[in-house]
Amino acid sequence: MAYDILIKFGERAHMEELIHQGVVYMNTLEWYRTQENNAERHDPDEGLERIMQAKGARLYRKDPETGKSKEIAELTGGAARVWHSNLDRCKVFCLFHFTAPDDTKLELGEVVSKRTQSGFGDTAVVIYDVAGFVPQVKTAAHEQGFFHSRKFVQYVDMGTYSGEIGPFVKDLRFRHQQELRIAVLDKYMSPEPVRLRVGSLENMALLIPADEIHKIAMESQLIYSDT
């Protein structure tokens, strides 16, 4: 049968805190938008509510004397972006997701891109009990009074796409991240990061150096070799 796996990449101290203490650290969409020195984290469209392509749109000017509108130009490119301050304060927890098909054995190094392995930190937490982990995060969020949502990120071409964006739509250039995103929002719209405590993950995850992802193989059970 098919099975899922989640991977969180980060600095070792933070990943140790995640697996041993169950601290799920969630930063705001605004924070990700401002990380200009980190190509994997920086996304100028984080916090965007909607995008509308302007190609083919027409500009009109009203005649002050007659009140009639006259077409003065047709737009040939560009997009209108609509932002929402509440989305800026949405907090997210981002994980690489992969579903292994039936009757296969795969090394994770074959499915996790080098950019993803090296772009977020030197350590990885590999969560193999996804069915156990995900409900714990939801429960912790609700217990702390947060609105909770969870989706796989949809990757679109921001140069042609028109429609809703929100926390679960990103540009195609990030599709190698294969992201499952967990989002929370509190009624006070606090701008501060969130630390959810879900309990130790030691019975459902592995802690390894990020550059040793290739040593993990997936089949009927998770296999890790440090040799």
Brief characterization of the structure:
The chain has 227 residues and is α+β, with helices and mostly antiparallel strands. The protein contains five helices and 18 strands.
What does this structure look like?
The chain is an alpha+beta fold and 227 residues long. The chain folds into 2 domains: 3-47 and 85-224, no CATH class; 49-82, no CATH class. The chain is built from 5 helices and 18 strands. Strands 1, 2, 7, 9, 10, 14, 15 and 16 form an 8-stranded antiparallel beta sheet that branches. A hairpin with a 6-residue loop joins β4 and β5 (69-74). The radius of gyration is 21 Å and the shape is elongated.
Structural class: alpha+beta
Instruction: Tell me the helix content.
Output: 10-25%
Strand content: 35-45%
General shape: elongated
Number of domains: 2
